[in-house]
Amino acid sequence: MKNTDTSSPQGRLSGNLGVAEIIFMVVAAAAPLTVVSGNVPLAIAQGNGPYAWTGFVAAALVLMLFSIGFVAMTPFMKEAGAFFSYIREGLGKRIGCGGAFVALLTYTAIQVGVYGFFGWAVDDAVREWGGPHLPWWLYAFGVLAVVGVLGYRHIELSSRVLGIALILEIGVVVIMNAAIVMHPSPVPPPVTTGAAEPMGPFAVALLFAITGFLGFEATAIFRDEARDPERTIPRATYGAVAIIGVFYAFSCWCLIEAWGVDSVTAVARKYLADGGNMVLDTASRYVGTGMRNVMEVLLLTSLFACLLSFHNIIARYQLVLGREGILPGFLAQTHSRHSSPHSSSLVQTITAVLLVGVAALSGADPLVTVFGSMAGISTVGIVLLMILTSAAVVMFFRNNKVKQGGSLQTNWCPVLSVFVLVSVLFIILDNFTTITGLSLGISTFLAVMPFVALLGGWCLGGRGVSVAAQMPQGQEV
Question: How many CB atoms lie within 10 A of CB 187?
């Protein structure tokens, strides 16, 4: 009789992902075209104007500093739990569980926000092409179904889909950037705005830059599916941060050059007020209407790639917590044929349906309210996670007499990373209403949520019983 059981409770995820494939997954989660179209104009308009590109450089340097300790600890992490595993090994199981709940909140929040962004972007494109105006949530639920199917399958299928989308979206931005570099004088000339407007704070540009890197630590989440993880994960981490940082900073600089240093701040603020897309119009002016239309389609594929990456990340966090007995054990099951976290993926799909449904019923604006507020939560969450992870690296190497690089890599850089990231977190909280665009009361509530998740996870951390501990010897989770 044929075995129809598709679950493998004690099986590990499997795959043969190399450095390039993992970088594809991570950079796709960062959604380059989405960030260039959204975060960059915001950084220019509300941040330090013609110098907004420095925010992306600074963010890349901060994350590269963080990555030094993160990579040093990677060879000693045998669990694909990313922040959860690192924090647990360095600071203890309770804090580690708290970190896992912060990560779940962070990625769930930004995923819901991107579903709102996707629904708004599709409706905007359809109406521009002469189609009907439909509720944003119809498009959101449609793409949610596709993401759910791909997330259920083997990880290499997702990596191929993300790789194709990523190459196309980066390609069109590179073409636009090249056209700007070759023809630095705007054609036609930019709208006359008079005297240059005063710049905003550098801190705001840094805020929007950091949100553009969300998901970069996912390199460690895919260690079970990586080829030679001890080498693949560090190379993919440094490579992802470098590629994302250079791409964002250079694209931001090109957009500034396209409109002129004296005009760009006013132009960006006008687009922000009118609800237009500054980057798409820049592409139209420099490379033609046809390329603008192509870029508009690829913006949708960029958002789709982002959603698929976040789905995979959340599913794997839930799988690890299922293995630990902190969440229900069925989440630790893997598919016998696809070697995917199919149970966790299904739960993640159901969760997304419920949350998008709540957002739809609330009548909230999909871009300003849904995306803006969820981006605020995720920004606080990711910086809090990096602070805990850097502290965990320091404590891990102090408590375990293992050799891995020198004290610069295992102590001084992680300590410096903690201080730098605490400063960044203070900047984020001090400017939180700028990120969310909501009232002080609502913004405060949203900002507190990651800390509540940390406390809740800490409380639940004492009750977890590893699935591995319940199995006969010789079986592996």
Answer: 10
Measured in residues, the chain has a length of 477
The closest alpha carbon to 339, from 2, 93, 7, 4, belongs to 7
Centre a 10 Å sphere on the Cβ of residue 445 and count the other Cβ atoms it contains: 14
Residue 312's nearest CA partner among 272, 356, 345, 266 is 345
300 contacts 108 by C-beta, under 8 angstroms: no
**Of 167-181, 189-203, 337-351, which one has max mean pLDDT?**
167-181
The confidence score (pLDDT) of residue 338 equals 54
Residue pLDDT, tens place only, 110-148: 899 889 989 988 988 888 888 888 999 999 999 999 888
Omega into 188 within 30° of 0, i.e. cis?
Answer: yes
72 exposure class (CB count in 10 Å sphere: 0-12, 13-18, 19+): buried
Q: What is the rounded distance in angstroms from the CA atom of residue 345 to the CA atom of residue 151?
A: 6
* Calpha distance 26→461 (Å, rounded): 28
Its sign, for the CA torsion 196, 39, 239, 374, is positive
CA 193/CA 201 separation, integer angstroms: 21
Write the DSSP string, 148-183.
HHHHHS-HHHHHHHHHHHHHHHHHHHHHHHHHHHH-
Looking at residue 195, its amino acid is A
**Strands 7-8 and 334-335, how do they pair?**
antiparallel
What would the pLDDT profile of 62-101 be if each residue is shown by its tens digit? Answer: 999 999 998 888 778 766 556 888 898 999 988 988 998 9
Contact 177, 250 (CB under 8 A): yes
Confidence of residue 475 (pLDDT cuts 50, 70, 90): very low
